[in-house]
Amino acid sequence: MRRGQREGYIDPGWSPVHLVVLLAGIAKSMEAPVAFARGLALRTGTADLVADRRAAAVKAAEQLIRPA
Fold first, then answer.
1. What global pTM score does this model have?
2. DSSP H helical segments within the chain, as ranges?
3. For 16, what's the count of Cα atoms within 13 Å in the CB-facing half-sphere?
């Protein structure tokens, strides 16, 4: 993490510990019960596809670590 920050790949404004906790939280959010995710999808008129949720998690992580 620190090397990535030094080399300009990861936003140096984050504490490495905080960043790891945040990224773990994003990953953990993908464990949402299928029924819960499906219910949200039905209310918003979108499909609940695991691939879509995974892509959203990757995008969130990329945006979080992107250097300013």
1. 0.73
2. 2-6, 16-29, 34-44, 50-65
3. 6
Tally of CB atoms within 10 A around 10: 19
The Cα–Cα gap between 39 and 42 comes to: 5
Q: What is the DSSP letter of 47?
A: -
In tens, the pLDDT along 25-35 reads 999 888 766 67
In angstroms, the CA 65 to CA 23 distance is: 9
- Range 36-57 burial, b when 16+ CB lie within 10 A, else e: ebeeeeeeeeeebeeeeeeeeb
Q: Which residue has the tokens 């995974």?
A: 54
* Cα 54 to Cα 33: distance, rounded to the nearest angstrom: 14
Residue at token pair 């990861």: 10
